Amino acid sequence: MRSGVLLAAMLLSWAACSITMGDDLLEERTESFSLEQGGNLSIRNVNGNVNIEPWDGSVVEVVLTIRGNAGMGIPEGFETKAVATPSSLSYEVEYPEGPNTVSVSFIVRVPRELSLNVVVELENGSITMVGPHFVNLGTSNGSITVEGAAGGDGAETTNGNITASFTGFSSGMTLETVNGSIRASLPADAAFSAETVNGNVTVEGFNTTASSSTGVTVQGEPAAEIGTVNGNITVDVIQASVSGR
Fold first, then answer.
1. How far apart are CA 40 and CA 102, in angstroms?
2. Does 118 share its domain with 29?
3. Which range (20-29, 44-53, 73-82) has the least confidence?
4. How many CA within 13 A on the CB side of residue 158?
């Protein structure tokens, strides 16, 4: 696991405690975009959840919901920036200096057969991603759920659980948390190492080449790293069919 991650966890937890936000609906809007097969989707935000799901529409639909304190409203300097081309869609949320008083959640509906390269970077929020995408997902305080991904760099959080299923596999993929458990479903030919410090590792359906209660290795290439500090890890073989909501 990456060095310094425990210190980062403590600092980010302190930062999260300093945030004072309301839960009043301040604004909601829906935006639509056309994206090519294999295009890029990226979202960078500080406060708020991201939900990416398949639908039967022909375009990518994004629903942004801004919440905060109705008496304070949306602060000056707060902005959601979208940059779109046929091959790329990116959102970045800018906050003014000082305590954060608003949050932005994203619901992104992607045409069912469209496969994208998805990058999500959050600080305080959970991520749910369903669909045949290549994923690079990260948050500091929140859980991550991945269903039916085709591969990618994987998913990392500091305080939260990871639940992930992958129909494909990418070299160097990482599933990592500090305070949370991990449950992963991977292709039958996947190679990986799984390790926890305070917890147990359970592997089902794979031939392990090194195994203990807290660490398991399945040899071969490509290899993935699955790890947590405080939590259990369970890895099994993905079933032939994956739910598409």
1. 27
2. yes
3. 20-29
4. 22
Query: Is residue 137 included in any domain, yes or no?
Result: no
Residue bearing the bigger pLDDT, 15 or 125: 125
What span, in angstroms and rounded, lies between the C-alpha atoms of 220 and 233? Answer: 20
Are residues 184 and 112 both part of a single domain?
no
Neighbours of 5 (CB within 10 A): 15
Is 76 buried (19+), middle (13-18) or exposed (0-12) by CB count in 10 A?
exposed
pTM of the model: 0.88
- Residues 174 and 227 placed together within one structural domain of the fold: yes
In a domain, 83, yes or no: yes
Mean pLDDT of 155-164: 98
Residue range of the domain that includes 213? 146-240
Q: Report d(CA 37, CA 114) in Å as an integer.
A: 6
**Is residue 197 within 8 Å of 213, Cβ to Cβ?**
no
157 in the same domain as 102: no
Compute the distance between CA of residue 70 and CA of residue 111 in angstroms, rounded to an integer: 35
Mean per-residue pLDDT, 94-105: 92
Based on the structure, what is the number of domains in the chain? 2
Pairing label, strands 24-33, 60-68: antiparallel
> Closest Cα partner for 233 from 223, 243, 212?
212
